[in-house]
Protein backbone atom coordinates (compact mmCIF):
# COMPACT_ATOMS: atom_id res chain seq x y z
CA UNK A 1 0.00 0.00 0.00
CA UNK A 2 2.87 2.40 0.83
CA UNK A 3 4.34 1.92 -2.65
CA UNK A 4 0.98 2.60 -4.26
CA UNK A 5 0.47 5.79 -2.22
CA UNK A 6 3.99 6.95 -3.08
CA UNK A 7 3.41 6.44 -6.82
CA UNK A 8 0.13 8.35 -6.73
CA UNK A 9 1.71 11.18 -4.76
CA UNK A 10 4.46 11.39 -7.39
CA UNK A 11 1.77 11.46 -10.09
CA UNK A 12 -0.10 14.18 -8.25
CA UNK A 13 3.07 16.25 -7.85
CA UNK A 14 3.86 15.87 -11.54
CA UNK A 15 0.39 17.07 -12.49
CA UNK A 16 0.67 19.96 -10.02
CA UNK A 17 4.04 20.86 -11.58
CA UNK A 18 2.47 20.77 -15.06
CA UNK A 19 -0.43 22.97 -13.95
CA UNK A 20 2.06 25.36 -12.39
CA UNK A 21 3.93 25.65 -15.68
CA UNK A 22 0.67 26.29 -17.56
CA UNK A 23 -0.24 29.04 -15.11
CA UNK A 24 3.16 30.62 -15.69
CA UNK A 25 2.88 30.33 -19.49
CA UNK A 26 -0.64 31.78 -19.55
CA UNK A 27 0.43 34.60 -17.26
CA UNK A 28 -2.21 33.82 -14.65
CA UNK A 29 0.39 33.92 -11.90
CA UNK A 30 0.64 37.71 -12.24
CA UNK A 31 -3.13 38.12 -11.74
CA UNK A 32 -3.13 35.74 -8.79
CA UNK A 33 -0.15 37.46 -7.20
CA UNK A 34 -1.74 40.88 -7.71
CA UNK A 35 -4.79 39.65 -5.78
CA UNK A 36 -2.60 38.30 -2.99
CA UNK A 37 -2.99 34.65 -4.05
CA UNK A 38 -0.02 32.30 -4.24
CA UNK A 39 -0.99 29.62 -6.75
CA UNK A 40 1.68 27.23 -5.44
CA UNK A 41 0.31 27.45 -1.92
CA UNK A 42 -3.21 27.12 -3.31
CA UNK A 43 -2.27 23.92 -5.15
CA UNK A 44 -0.70 22.42 -2.04
CA UNK A 45 -3.75 23.34 0.04
CA UNK A 46 -6.10 21.78 -2.53
CA UNK A 47 -3.99 18.61 -2.64
CA UNK A 48 -4.02 18.28 1.15
CA UNK A 49 -7.72 19.03 1.36
CA UNK A 50 -8.58 16.62 -1.48
CA UNK A 51 -6.48 13.72 -0.22
CA UNK A 52 -7.25 14.11 3.47
CA UNK A 53 -10.98 13.99 2.78
CA UNK A 54 -10.62 10.89 0.59
CA UNK A 55 -8.45 9.07 3.14
CA UNK A 56 -10.75 9.90 6.03
CA UNK A 57 -13.57 8.32 4.04
CA UNK A 58 -11.39 5.26 3.41
CA UNK A 59 -10.51 4.88 7.09
CA UNK A 60 -14.19 5.07 8.03
CA UNK A 61 -15.39 2.85 5.16
CA UNK A 62 -15.49 -0.42 7.08
CA UNK A 63 -17.15 1.14 10.13
CA UNK A 64 -19.74 3.02 8.08
CA UNK A 65 -20.52 0.01 5.87
CA UNK A 66 -21.32 -2.13 8.90
CA UNK A 67 -23.77 0.43 10.23
CA UNK A 68 -25.39 1.58 6.99
CA UNK A 69 -25.89 -1.98 5.72
CA UNK A 70 -26.55 -3.47 9.19
CA UNK A 71 -23.99 -6.18 8.57
CA UNK A 72 -24.01 -9.19 10.88
CA UNK A 73 -20.42 -10.35 11.34
CA UNK A 74 -19.45 -14.00 11.35
CA UNK A 75 -16.87 -15.11 13.90
CA UNK A 76 -14.40 -17.25 11.91
CA UNK A 77 -13.24 -18.90 15.14
CA UNK A 78 -16.78 -19.82 16.15
CA UNK A 79 -19.10 -20.03 13.11
CA UNK A 80 -22.73 -20.72 13.90
CA UNK A 81 -23.87 -23.80 12.05
CA UNK A 82 -22.64 -25.71 9.02
CA UNK A 83 -23.54 -22.95 6.55
CA UNK A 84 -21.33 -20.33 8.24
CA UNK A 85 -18.54 -22.85 8.72
CA UNK A 86 -18.55 -23.73 5.00
CA UNK A 87 -18.59 -20.05 4.02
CA UNK A 88 -15.63 -19.26 6.29
CA UNK A 89 -13.62 -22.22 4.99
CA UNK A 90 -14.32 -21.23 1.39
CA UNK A 91 -13.15 -17.66 2.05
CA UNK A 92 -10.05 -18.89 3.91
CA UNK A 93 -9.12 -21.09 0.96
CA UNK A 94 -9.58 -18.28 -1.56
CA UNK A 95 -7.56 -15.86 0.60
CA UNK A 96 -4.69 -18.33 0.81
CA UNK A 97 -4.71 -18.76 -2.98
CA UNK A 98 -4.77 -14.97 -3.39
CA UNK A 99 -1.76 -14.57 -1.09
CA UNK A 100 -3.63 -12.70 1.64
CA UNK A 101 -2.06 -13.21 5.06
CA UNK A 102 -4.99 -11.79 7.02
CA UNK A 103 -8.58 -12.99 6.75
CA UNK A 104 -11.00 -10.12 6.11
CA UNK A 105 -13.94 -9.55 8.40
CA UNK A 106 -16.83 -11.59 7.03
CA UNK A 107 -20.40 -10.42 7.25
CA UNK A 108 -23.90 -10.89 5.85
CA UNK A 109 -26.42 -8.10 5.29
CA UNK A 110 -30.15 -8.65 4.83
CA UNK A 111 -31.12 -7.29 1.42
CA UNK A 112 -33.23 -8.21 -1.62
CA UNK A 113 -30.30 -7.40 -3.94
CA UNK A 114 -28.05 -10.21 -5.11
CA UNK A 115 -24.68 -8.65 -4.41
CA UNK A 116 -21.47 -8.60 -2.40
CA UNK A 117 -18.74 -6.05 -1.76
CA UNK A 118 -15.35 -5.56 -0.16
CA UNK A 119 -14.16 -2.40 1.56
CA UNK A 120 -11.70 -1.26 4.19
CA UNK A 121 -8.55 0.85 4.53
CA UNK A 122 -6.03 -1.93 3.79
CA UNK A 123 -5.59 -5.62 2.98
CA UNK A 124 -5.20 -6.35 6.68
CA UNK A 125 -8.28 -4.36 7.70
CA UNK A 126 -10.77 -5.35 5.02
CA UNK A 127 -14.44 -6.28 5.19
CA UNK A 128 -16.12 -8.77 2.88
CA UNK A 129 -19.91 -8.54 2.98
CA UNK A 130 -22.41 -10.76 1.18
CA UNK A 131 -26.12 -10.12 0.78
CA UNK A 132 -28.58 -12.66 2.16
CA UNK A 133 -30.26 -12.91 -1.25
CA UNK A 134 -27.00 -13.85 -2.96
CA UNK A 135 -26.42 -16.66 -0.47
CA UNK A 136 -30.02 -17.84 -0.76
CA UNK A 137 -30.36 -17.66 -4.54
CA UNK A 138 -26.92 -18.69 -5.83
CA UNK A 139 -25.45 -22.17 -5.75
CA UNK A 140 -22.02 -22.94 -4.36
CA UNK A 141 -20.19 -22.56 -7.67
CA UNK A 142 -21.60 -19.09 -8.33
CA UNK A 143 -20.85 -18.01 -4.75
CA UNK A 144 -17.26 -19.20 -5.25
CA UNK A 145 -16.86 -16.91 -8.26
CA UNK A 146 -18.36 -13.91 -6.45
CA UNK A 147 -16.17 -14.42 -3.38
CA UNK A 148 -13.10 -14.77 -5.59
CA UNK A 149 -13.96 -11.48 -7.27
CA UNK A 150 -14.28 -9.61 -3.97
CA UNK A 151 -11.15 -11.20 -2.51
CA UNK A 152 -9.29 -10.13 -5.67
CA UNK A 153 -10.42 -6.56 -4.99
CA UNK A 154 -8.80 -6.84 -1.55
CA UNK A 155 -5.63 -8.51 -2.86
CA UNK A 156 -5.28 -5.87 -5.60
CA UNK A 157 -5.64 -3.02 -3.09
CA UNK A 158 -8.52 -1.56 -5.09
CA UNK A 159 -10.01 0.35 -2.16
CA UNK A 160 -6.76 2.32 -1.75
CA UNK A 161 -6.41 2.82 -5.51
CA UNK A 162 -9.90 4.26 -5.86
CA UNK A 163 -9.27 6.54 -2.86
CA UNK A 164 -6.06 7.84 -4.44
CA UNK A 165 -7.82 8.47 -7.75
CA UNK A 166 -10.56 10.31 -5.88
CA UNK A 167 -7.89 12.36 -4.09
CA UNK A 168 -6.26 13.43 -7.37
CA UNK A 169 -9.63 14.38 -8.85
CA UNK A 170 -10.61 16.24 -5.67
CA UNK A 171 -7.37 18.23 -5.80
CA UNK A 172 -7.96 19.60 -9.26
CA UNK A 173 -11.68 20.09 -8.88
CA UNK A 174 -11.05 22.27 -5.82
CA UNK A 175 -8.13 24.07 -7.46
CA UNK A 176 -9.87 24.81 -10.76
CA UNK A 177 -13.04 25.95 -9.00
CA UNK A 178 -10.97 28.45 -7.01
CA UNK A 179 -9.19 29.71 -10.15
CA UNK A 180 -12.44 30.09 -12.12
CA UNK A 181 -14.15 31.79 -9.19
CA UNK A 182 -11.18 34.15 -8.93
CA UNK A 183 -11.46 35.00 -12.65
CA UNK A 184 -15.19 35.70 -12.30
CA UNK A 185 -14.58 37.81 -9.20
CA UNK A 186 -11.99 39.86 -11.09
CA UNK A 187 -14.36 40.37 -14.02
CA UNK A 188 -17.21 41.47 -11.73
CA UNK A 189 -14.90 43.90 -9.91
CA UNK A 190 -13.89 45.49 -13.20
CA UNK A 191 -17.49 45.79 -14.40
CA UNK A 192 -18.79 47.14 -11.10
CA UNK A 193 -15.73 49.31 -10.45
CA UNK A 194 -14.52 47.46 -7.39
CA UNK A 195 -17.81 46.09 -6.05
CA UNK A 196 -17.01 42.38 -6.37
CA UNK A 197 -19.24 39.41 -5.60
CA UNK A 198 -19.16 39.48 -1.83
CA UNK A 199 -18.30 36.59 0.49
CA UNK A 200 -21.65 34.75 0.37
CA UNK A 201 -22.00 34.95 -3.42
CA UNK A 202 -18.41 33.82 -3.90
CA UNK A 203 -18.92 30.92 -1.49
CA UNK A 204 -21.94 29.64 -3.42
CA UNK A 205 -20.12 30.21 -6.71
CA UNK A 206 -17.24 28.00 -5.56
CA UNK A 207 -19.65 25.31 -4.34
CA UNK A 208 -21.49 25.35 -7.67
CA UNK A 209 -18.25 25.18 -9.65
CA UNK A 210 -17.01 22.27 -7.55
CA UNK A 211 -20.26 20.37 -8.19
CA UNK A 212 -20.11 21.00 -11.94
CA UNK A 213 -16.42 20.16 -12.24
CA UNK A 214 -16.82 17.00 -10.14
CA UNK A 215 -19.63 15.90 -12.43
CA UNK A 216 -17.43 16.52 -15.48
CA UNK A 217 -14.47 14.72 -13.89
CA UNK A 218 -16.45 11.74 -12.55
CA UNK A 219 -16.13 9.70 -15.79
CA UNK A 220 -12.40 9.42 -14.98
CA UNK A 221 -13.21 7.81 -11.62
CA UNK A 222 -15.83 5.55 -13.19
CA UNK A 223 -13.40 4.50 -15.93
CA UNK A 224 -10.82 3.42 -13.34
CA UNK A 225 -13.56 1.59 -11.42
CA UNK A 226 -14.59 -0.35 -14.55
CA UNK A 227 -10.96 -1.33 -15.23
CA UNK A 228 -10.72 -2.59 -11.66
CA UNK A 229 -13.84 -4.72 -12.14
CA UNK A 230 -12.31 -6.43 -15.16
CA UNK A 231 -9.13 -7.04 -13.17
CA UNK A 232 -11.07 -8.49 -10.21
CA UNK A 233 -12.95 -10.79 -12.60
CA UNK A 234 -9.61 -11.98 -13.96
CA UNK A 235 -8.34 -12.45 -10.40
CA UNK A 236 -11.33 -14.63 -9.56
CA UNK A 237 -10.74 -16.60 -12.77
CA UNK A 238 -7.19 -17.33 -11.60
CA UNK A 239 -8.39 -18.39 -8.15
CA UNK A 240 -11.28 -20.65 -9.19
CA UNK A 241 -11.16 -20.93 -12.96
CA UNK A 242 -12.52 -18.73 -15.75
CA UNK A 243 -15.61 -20.91 -16.25
CA UNK A 244 -16.54 -20.52 -12.57
CA UNK A 245 -16.35 -16.73 -12.82
CA UNK A 246 -18.32 -16.74 -16.06
CA UNK A 247 -20.92 -18.95 -14.38
CA UNK A 248 -21.13 -16.48 -11.47
CA UNK A 249 -21.63 -13.52 -13.84
CA UNK A 250 -24.30 -15.45 -15.74
CA UNK A 251 -26.04 -16.09 -12.44
CA UNK A 252 -25.90 -12.37 -11.66
CA UNK A 253 -27.54 -11.63 -15.02
CA UNK A 254 -30.53 -13.70 -13.96
CA UNK A 255 -30.72 -11.78 -10.69
CA UNK A 256 -30.76 -8.20 -12.00
CA UNK A 257 -33.52 -5.90 -10.80
CA UNK A 258 -33.26 -5.31 -7.07
CA UNK A 259 -30.76 -2.74 -5.87
CA UNK A 260 -29.97 -1.78 -2.28
CA UNK A 261 -29.38 1.99 -2.15
CA UNK A 262 -28.64 2.34 1.56
CA UNK A 263 -24.95 3.10 0.94
CA UNK A 264 -24.35 4.63 -2.52
CA UNK A 265 -20.65 5.15 -1.77
CA UNK A 266 -20.19 1.36 -1.75
CA UNK A 267 -21.58 0.87 -5.27
CA UNK A 268 -18.13 0.83 -6.89
CA UNK A 269 -17.07 -2.05 -4.61
CA UNK A 270 -20.07 -4.29 -5.27
CA UNK A 271 -19.81 -7.05 -7.83
CA UNK A 272 -23.11 -6.14 -9.46
CA UNK A 273 -23.27 -2.50 -10.60
CA UNK A 274 -26.70 -2.40 -12.30
CA UNK A 275 -25.39 -0.11 -15.07
CA UNK A 276 -27.09 -0.17 -18.48
CA UNK A 277 -27.59 1.99 -21.55
CA UNK A 278 -25.37 4.56 -23.23
CA UNK A 279 -25.28 6.73 -20.09
CA UNK A 280 -23.58 3.92 -18.20
CA UNK A 281 -20.63 3.97 -20.60
CA UNK A 282 -19.47 7.16 -18.85
CA UNK A 283 -21.20 7.14 -15.48
CA UNK A 284 -21.25 3.49 -14.39
CA UNK A 285 -18.91 1.96 -11.83
CA UNK A 286 -19.22 -1.43 -13.56
CA UNK A 287 -18.98 -2.63 -17.16
CA UNK A 288 -22.03 -4.49 -18.53
CA UNK A 289 -22.10 -8.11 -17.39
CA UNK A 290 -22.02 -9.33 -21.01
CA UNK A 291 -18.83 -7.33 -21.64
CA UNK A 292 -17.23 -8.82 -18.53
CA UNK A 293 -18.16 -12.34 -19.61
CA UNK A 294 -16.78 -11.73 -23.10
CA UNK A 295 -13.52 -10.36 -21.64
CA UNK A 296 -13.09 -13.55 -19.62
CA UNK A 297 -13.81 -15.73 -22.63
CA UNK A 298 -11.23 -13.84 -24.70
CA UNK A 299 -8.73 -13.86 -21.84
CA UNK A 300 -8.39 -10.08 -22.28
CA UNK A 301 -7.77 -9.45 -18.59
CA UNK A 302 -6.13 -12.69 -17.51
- What is the percent of helical residues? 55-70%
- CA radius of gyration: 23 Å
Give the strand content.
5-15%
Q: How would you sum up the major sheet?
A: 4 strands, mixed
- Our count of helices gives 11
User: What is the ordering of alpha helices and beta strands?
Assistant: HHHEHEEEHHHHHHH
What's the number of structural domains? 1
Task: Classify the secondary structure makeup into a structural class.
Answer: mainly alpha
Query: Ranges with pLDDT <50 over ≥5 residues?
Result: none
Kindly report how far apart the N and C termini lie: 22 Å
Roughly what is the average pLDDT, rounded to an integer? 81
Q: In total, how many beta strands?
A: 4
Q: Strand order within the widest sheet?
A: 1-2-4-3
Task: Provide an overview of this structure.
- By secondary structure, this protein is mostly helical.
- The chain has one domain.
- The chain is 68% helix and 6% strand.
- The protein has helices spanning 2-26, 28-34, 39-68, 81-98, 132-137, 140-156, 158-191, 199-240, 242-253, 280-283, 289-298, and strands spanning 72-74, 105-109, 116-119, 127-131.
- It has a 4-stranded mixed sheet with strand order 1-2-4-3, with helices on both faces.
- β3 (116-119) and β4 (127-131) form a beta hairpin.
- α1 runs antiparallel to α3 (39-68), α6 (140-156) packs across α8 and α8 (199-240) packs across α9.
- The two termini are 22 Å apart.
Amino acid sequence: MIKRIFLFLILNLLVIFTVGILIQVLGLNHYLAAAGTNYGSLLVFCALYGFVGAFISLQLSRWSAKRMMRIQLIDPQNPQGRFEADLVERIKSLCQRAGLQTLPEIGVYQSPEVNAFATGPSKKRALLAISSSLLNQMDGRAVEGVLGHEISHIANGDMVTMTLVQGVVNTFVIFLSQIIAFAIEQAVERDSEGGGLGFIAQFFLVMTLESVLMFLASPIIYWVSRRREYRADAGSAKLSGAETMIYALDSLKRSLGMEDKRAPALSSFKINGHGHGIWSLLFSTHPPLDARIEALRRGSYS
